[in-house]
Amino acid sequence: MTPPGRIVQLATDILEHTTGIQTYLDAHGIPSPSFEPGTLPKLPLPPALEDTLGQALSALDELNALLLGPLGWLKTQIDHAYDLVSLHAMYRFDVPSKIPLGADIPIGELARKCNGDNNLVERLLQHAVSNYLLIQPRPGYVAHSSTSTLLAQEPAFKDWVGTACEDMWPAGTKVIDALTKWPGAPALPHQTGHNLVENTAVPFFQTLEGDPDRARRFANTMWLMQKMPGFEPSAALDAFDWAALGESTVVDIGGSTGDFARELTKKNPKLHIVVQDLPNVIEKARSNFTRDSSSNITLKAHDFFTPQPVQGADVYFFRMILHDWPEESCTQILRQLIPSLKPGARVLVNDICMPPVGTLPRYQERQIRCQDIAMMAMFNSQERSSAQWARLIERADPRFHLQSVVQLPSSPLGLLQVIWMP
Ligand SMILES: C[S@@+](CC[C@H](N)C(=O)[O-])C[C@H]1O[C@@H](n2cnc3c(N)ncnc32)[C@H](O)[C@@H]1O
């Protein structure tokens, strides 16, 4: 018998995998995925079925591209540029908060509430409906979808969309112009798509320091990232024996509003943690720290391009920091530690470790490549493989001894343990 063609094989795989997932959902009384409000942000599956889900999505991705053919696939890529326009409208006009929960609303009335040109806003909302961001229960009306409910109910999701649409996406439109204007090495953090599109000569984080609202929005986005699958603090907490440090000092450099530090002290109450970040971020962190917050966390404004003020700490921790900076800047950041380091001090780098090309399913490889392009657009930096991390650390100073690299389970993040051996 002739084997089935690729598209039938893929469809068969999808059927098999989705049947496995549905059986689990039914057995555990979990509702089937839907676009209705109240749907969980992510299917609650055990690790084995996460794998099945990955295989289903991978097959679906390939099937979609094959069925569209090169013409349809190319058109899809080009259309993606406009998908963010309606999402941006949802953000800018705060559409989710203007839709009543549990009822629909005439699309014209919603457009009027947005104070925009009715016809234009209606068309943007109609595009959002086509992209599952809103539901159209009857002609001329819209209602909340699962996604818009999330945006209405959790302010950090709204901030994430704002950061994506107003900080990152505009920078992406100028990446190639930046690359043409400033070709070759060394990559500098103020020669990026962000610099061209905002007509500024300072790196992105300095732009944020001059704009507290944007800094707050970015900090909330970072808070949300900690909740994303694979980026939760728990993985980094398990990958290193923090308890063995006993009563030690850990400096969380660029620790944002202290979310990781809070998780770290919850599990290891003997640790004293100093969270350092830029002044606006530390100010926000202070307002987040309520009386239930741990007293063994100290918040301190500190620019990591200046000498490290905490002398002789046991651990200097960088979580998702160095991937924001090109090599030269990473070298400067690491060297600022040196005068404060005692022999045997640890520098822990918890950051994305790019897997070897071709080892991930195509759709997951695309996600991590998008992340890499975002680094290019905003910072002139990149996501690095563990070999690239090892070279970077060694070049910063040969007395930094890379002791181990642990890939965190079900996560793009790794944990690099570096010992200072003068
Ligand atoms: C990608 S976020 C990571 C935040 C946090 N470590 C986490 O895992 O969520 C990068 C952080 O670096 C901080 N940052 C950027 N430039 C800095 C500088 N020069 N000195 C100190 N912190 C800085 C930012 O404010 C931001 O909080």
TrEMBL record:
Molecular function as annotated in GO: O-methyltransferase activity
Domain O-methyltransferase C-terminal intervals: 203-396
Pfam families in the record: Methyltransf_2
Highest taxon above the source species: Eukaryota
UniProt record, GO biological process: methylation
Keyword list, A-Z: Methyltransferase, S-adenosyl-L-methionine, Transferase
InterPro entries, per the entry: COMT-like, COMT_C, SAM-dependent_MTases_sf, WH-like_DNA-bd_sf, WH_DNA-bd_sf
SUPFAM superfamilies from the UniProt entry: S-adenosyl-L-methionine-dependent methyltransferases (SSF53335), Winged helix' DNA-binding domain (SSF46785)
Name of this chain's protein: O-methyltransferase C-terminal domain-containing protein
Originating organism: Neoarthrinium moseri
